[in-house]
Amino acid sequence: MAEGRSYPSRPYLAVSAAIIRDGRILIVRRARPPAHGLFTLPGGGVEVGETLHEAVIREVREETALTVEPLALAGYREAIAHDSDGRIERHFVILPFAARWIAGDVVLLDEELGEARWLLPDELAGLTTTDGLAEIVRAAFTLVG
């Protein structure tokens, strides 16, 4: 968890990428909290002065070494976690983008990620994923065509 993002005074904006290559989607497994062990999309926080597209491109490159082209929003998610006292421990608004793979092979460059897989959309069914992942993937495939 990045410094200052626990017990926030405001929600944090993040992006993720539903990267499509040859009919498959890139899914990563989180290696530590939050969402430890869950399969999800690569992504992370938007930096000050950065456009959403710039954030998607940077986050994917920093986490996987891939070059991607973000195409369009594929939905949104809100991640709000409370501690045992009911206080808000984390609050993220996540904007997942449908993205097209441009170049590179997956190299996990971020210690927060433990695994990466290129999967057919139907193969998500047997995995433990972040909430709404299958819906986002369906929307991304619709947008990419």
**What gyration radius follows from the Cα positions, in whole Å?**
15 Å
User: Structural class of the helices, strands and pairings?
Assistant: alpha+beta
Strand content: 35-45%
Find the count of extended strands (DSSP E, 2+ residues). Answer: 8
Given the structure, what is the number of helices? 2
Chain-averaged pLDDT: 94
Cα distance, first to last residue? 35 Å
Query: What characteristic shape results from the CA principal axes?
Result: globular
- Helix percent reads 10-25%
Order of helices and strands: EEEEHEEEEH
| Largest β sheet strand count, sense and barrel closure | 8 strands, mixed
Spans of at least 5 consecutive residues whose pLDDT stays below 50 are: none
Explain how this protein is built.
The protein contains two helices and eight strands, in the order ββββαββββα. It has 145 residues and is an alpha+beta fold. The radius of gyration is 15 Å and the shape is globular. The termini are far apart. The model has no long low-confidence stretch (mean pLDDT 94).
Please summarize what this structure is:
This protein is an alpha+beta fold. It has helices spanning 52-64, 133-144, and strands at 12-21, 24-30, 39-40, 43-45, 67-73, 77-82, 88-103, 113-119. The radius of gyration is 15 Å and the shape is globular.
Supply database-style keywords.
eight-stranded mixed beta sheet, 2 helices, 17% helix
Topology:
Blueprint: E1 12-21, E2 24-30, E3 39-40, E4 43-45, H1 52-64, E5 67-73, E6 77-82, E7 88-103, E8 113-119, H2 133-144
Parallel strand pairs: 1-7
Antiparallel strand pairs: 1-2, 1-4, 2-3, 2-8, 5-7, 6-7
